[in-house]
Amino acid sequence: MPPVILRSTLALTFIFSTPFAAATTYYVATNGSNGNPGTLSQPWATIQHAADTIGPGDIVQVRAGNYEGAYFSTSGTASQPIVVQAYPGEAPAITSDNPETPDGFNLEGSSYMVIDGFTINGRSRAGIRAVTCEHVTVRNNSVDQSGVFGIFTGFCDDMLIENNTTSRSEEQHGIYVSNSGDRPIIRGNTIWGNNQAGIHMNGDGTEGGDGIISDAVVEGNVIYDNGVGGGSGINMDGVQDSLIRNNLVYNTHASGLSLYRIDGGGPSTGNRVLNNTIVVASNGRWALNVQDGSTDNTFLNNIVHNNHSFRGVFDISPDSLPGLVSDYNVVMDRFTTDGGDTILSLAEWRQQTGQDTHSFTSTPSALFVDAPDGDYHLSPTSPAVDAGETLSDVPADLSDVPRPQGAAYDIGAYESGDGGGGGDGGELVFSSGFESP
Prior knowledge:
By secondary structure, this protein is mainly beta. It contains 3 helices and 39 strands.
């Protein structure tokens, strides 16, 4: 069942450097006509008509009902973004592909845009696709049962993907960020039941550009029950100098988090993996998978557990060991540097690598309130409480509770003062408590 999550009720407001200038608000409704002026009393009938009409600074509000998707090729500006959003208090649904591509919404070279608040189910390829663009925000959308991807981006710099639910993609991933798009932020999303990865990030060096995704932030996501067809909870191919913090990954059927190089323009190096909770299903792979010369990565304050009968917490190749920093983690006695041919205990791992001198082993029953029922908050007696290292770039937990609540940082995605009891899942609202690099 979904996790018990307590979220801040302070929704992140999208703030631009200057106010909207000469913005016009238009409306779309199922009882409208494209011959209308697009006012609240005389709305347009289709989102595509809006996409063909609007310009920088315009806002489109879509009333409740079922709609065809839309193809956008117009850009806003930094001071006059284009905003396409659900009418307040209503939940419009995209129930067929847009007229040009097999996706719900397709942004083709359309920059400085916001897509906010839509339900998009059963689209042929992606629920939302954004390519060759910059400064696009995809927020508060629910995307279910897409043919290939929930949300897909390619060659998009400064992408913000937050507070969405992406579920049950039939072929591939919940969220796929690709093609050398730098500085993406993937924040506060619920990602579950996708056939392959929950989040897949791939620099795709064969497609042009430098093949590297740099300076990404992946934070505060709840990612579960993905990977039956392969693909980690969080996959990172050619991702460098990025921050992965406060994510809850559980019941993952492949790896938990992978840093590697297959298609990327280089290995996944220089990343900081901090205060995450990762629990692998009994049919999964290794919880942390670091391969292909992915050096200089840091793993601190993570809870890592594997329910598989012999696989464990860390599979790292010898050429990925240089520059590794791993400590203050809660782990199991299962490490490997040869793909699982040899299993190392924590003591042997320490002796062989010099890592995890302050880390320790524990079990889900000792750590969490109720892991079998999806509650990964720390129990009052959890050994992870006050056992972490102070980290300036993790000032709050997954629910935006400030760290520390006790004498020291807790280990894992939740700080012990979080409180839990937030119900079974519910709407994800992620506040602006973090300042992204």
